[in-house]
């Protein structure tokens, strides 16, 4: 019978520093020959604080008393040979975690046309666009364990041409998905990519772009067996902490405003719910969307992009390519506002995903629905709160950052419920996650519980993922028709 002691013991064995019995530094041999040469930290003190935040902000411990969460931890360990920090942090929301693990397991180890080592290499490519060393290290190890050629980890010059041709699509989907169109599909088809392979690759890239946002948004530190994972170093205000995937404490917005409290936010939500105001016309909705769009472009750009280390930059091509505000995209005819009433996940994206990559549409749909509707009816210390308006405002604001307009949503609610500081945080996590600072995290949602901040970051992850997939799957559909 499995219990947390079994899991904890195995997790520590998996996360110890490893040495090959052949005394080689080969990553492949390090992964294959597992011999503990360093004592693991005390599980009661070493595994509960793996965030770059305050001591009271912790991942869910292996010894959790919640049966559902503990069983999910066991499942995750059996699937991945480790219990990683992402899983433990998502453990605050076990219903979501169950769907996340099921989807990621299917992407990386389930049915699909791509070889397993290709899938992990594509994950590395995706994480490198945001300099997410945490995910890069995880999937370098998995790539080797799945039989991948270690030379590929030297950079794009060493990988097959077929994979190398994904770099253009990878950077566009990561930073400016509105540029993606059927011509990218046509180009890749000439490089021996089948449409079903492309759809799987696109979903994997989008998944890890969005997961990079979650890693940075929550300040997740490296695993114990990764570089710096066992090392404690006081944080320097001038140091760029690439080792722990979290930038320095310098503020990204010198014009930050005081945050209103939960009570005021609740009053605003109540007024919106009780409002007898007439439904805005289609023209008024469009104007309110454009207002939010332009206000977003006026937010101060996050601090300087951290200089990537060699272990990250080796995977990146066209390093300077990054997000630009949709309103500043240039030719509006080539990339008009994406109207969700013309192409939506429910009516279009879901079916084409399922058609070309069996079951992934169902898995994604359940996960989107869970993230969109998840609520505990609490806000800080207050209970019995209807948070739906606040959650909708976050979801649709993220889509707005990518130029996606939902015709049935009143974007006036975004400005009523999301303050400037929170908008700045959402935009940074979604569009420039590698530039996020600890101060950004600390300056928003101050009265929220830590688990509620994690909840918000789950919505950011899923809304970004859905937005990226809407553009990508529309391009696939255009190619096929």
From TrEMBL:
<dbReference type="GO" id="GO:0005737">
    <property type="term" value="C:cytoplasm"/>
</dbReference>
<dbReference type="InterPro" id="IPR006730">
    <property type="entry name" value="Sestrin"/>
</dbReference>
<dbReference type="InterPro" id="IPR029032">
    <property type="entry name" value="AhpD-like"/>
</dbReference>
<dbReference type="GO" id="GO:0016239">
    <property type="term" value="P:positive regulation of macroautophagy"/>
</dbReference>
<dbReference type="GO" id="GO:0070728">
    <property type="term" value="F:L-leucine binding"/>
</dbReference>
<keyword id="KW-0963">Cytoplasm</keyword>
<feature type="region of interest" description="Disordered">
    <location>
        <begin position="229"/>
        <end position="259"/>
    </location>
</feature>
<protein>
    <recommendedName>
        <fullName>Sestrin-1</fullName>
    </recommendedName>
</protein>
<keyword id="KW-0560">Oxidoreductase</keyword>
<dbReference type="GO" id="GO:0071233">
    <property type="term" value="P:cellular response to L-leucine"/>
</dbReference>
<dbReference type="GO" id="GO:1901031">
    <property type="term" value="P:regulation of response to reactive oxygen species"/>
</dbReference>
<dbReference type="GO" id="GO:1904262">
    <property type="term" value="P:negative regulation of TORC1 signaling"/>
</dbReference>
<dbReference type="GO" id="GO:0016684">
    <property type="term" value="F:oxidoreductase activity, acting on peroxide as acceptor"/>
</dbReference>
<dbReference type="GO" id="GO:0005634">
    <property type="term" value="C:nucleus"/>
</dbReference>
<dbReference type="GO" id="GO:1990253">
    <property type="term" value="P:cellular response to leucine starvation"/>
</dbReference>
<comment type="similarity">
    <text>Belongs to the sestrin family.</text>
</comment>
<dbReference type="Pfam" id="PF04636">
    <property type="entry name" value="PA26"/>
</dbReference>
<feature type="compositionally biased region" description="Low complexity">
    <location>
        <begin position="240"/>
        <end position="255"/>
    </location>
</feature>
């Amino acid at each position: 019978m499995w219990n947390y002691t079994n899991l904890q013991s195995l997790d520590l064995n998996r996360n110890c520093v490893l040495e090959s019995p052949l005394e080689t530094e080969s990553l492949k041999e390090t992964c294959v020959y597992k011999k503990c040469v360093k004592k693991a930290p005390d599980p009661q003190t070493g595994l509960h604080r793996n965030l770059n935040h305050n001591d009271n902000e912790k991942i869910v411990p292996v010894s959790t008393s919640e049966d559902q969460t503990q069983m999910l931890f066991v499942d995750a360990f059996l699937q991945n040979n480790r219990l990683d920090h992402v899983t433990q942090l998502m453990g605050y929301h076990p219903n979501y975690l169950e769907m996340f693990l099921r989807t990621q397991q299917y992407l990386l180890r389930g049915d699909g046309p791509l070889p397993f080592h290709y899938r992990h290499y594509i994950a590395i490519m995706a994480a490198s666009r945001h300099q997410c060393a945490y995910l890069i290290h995880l999937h370098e190890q998995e790539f080797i364990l799945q039989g991948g050629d270690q030379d590929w980890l030297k950079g794009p010059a060493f990988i097959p041409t077929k994979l190398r041709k994904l770099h253009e699509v990878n950077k566009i989907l990561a930073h400016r998905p509105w540029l993606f169109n059927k011509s990218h599909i046509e180009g890749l088809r000439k490089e021996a990519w089948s449409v079903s392979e492309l759809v799987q690759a696109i979903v994997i890239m989008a998944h890890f772009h969005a997961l990079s946002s979650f890693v940075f948004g929550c300040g997740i530190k490296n695993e114990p067996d990764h570089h710096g994972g066992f090392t404690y170093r006081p944080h320097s205000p001038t140091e760029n902490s690439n080792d722990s995937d979290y930038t320095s404490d310098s503020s990204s917005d010198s014009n930050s405003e005081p945050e209103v409290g939960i009570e005021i936010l609740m009053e605003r939500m109540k007024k919106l719910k009780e409002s007898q105001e007439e439904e805005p016309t289609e023209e008024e909705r469009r104007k309110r969307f454009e207002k939010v769009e332009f206000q977003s472009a006026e937010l101060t750009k996050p601090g300087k992009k951290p200089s990537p280390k060699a272990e990250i930059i080796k995977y990146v091509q066209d390093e300077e390519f990054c997000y630009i505000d949709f309103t500043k995209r240039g030719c509006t005819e080539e990339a008009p506002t994406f109207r969700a009433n013309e192409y939506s996940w429910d009516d279009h994206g879901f079916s084409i995903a399922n058609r070309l990559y069996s079951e992934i549409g169902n898995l994604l749909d359940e996960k989107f629905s869970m993230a969109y509707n998840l609520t505990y009816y609490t806000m800080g210390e207050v209970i019995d709160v209807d948070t739906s308006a606040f959650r909708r405002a976050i979801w649709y604001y993220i889509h707005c950052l990518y130029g996606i307009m939902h015709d049935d949503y009143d974007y006036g609610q975004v400005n009523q419920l999301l303050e400037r500081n929170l908008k700045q945080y959402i935009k940074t996590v979604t569009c420039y996650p590698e530039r996020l600072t600890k101060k950004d995290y600390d300056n928003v949602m101050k009265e929220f519980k830590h688990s509620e901040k994690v909840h918000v970051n789950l919505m950011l992850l899923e809304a970004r993922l859905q937005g990226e997939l809407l553009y990508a799957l529309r391009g696939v559909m255009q190619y096929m028709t």
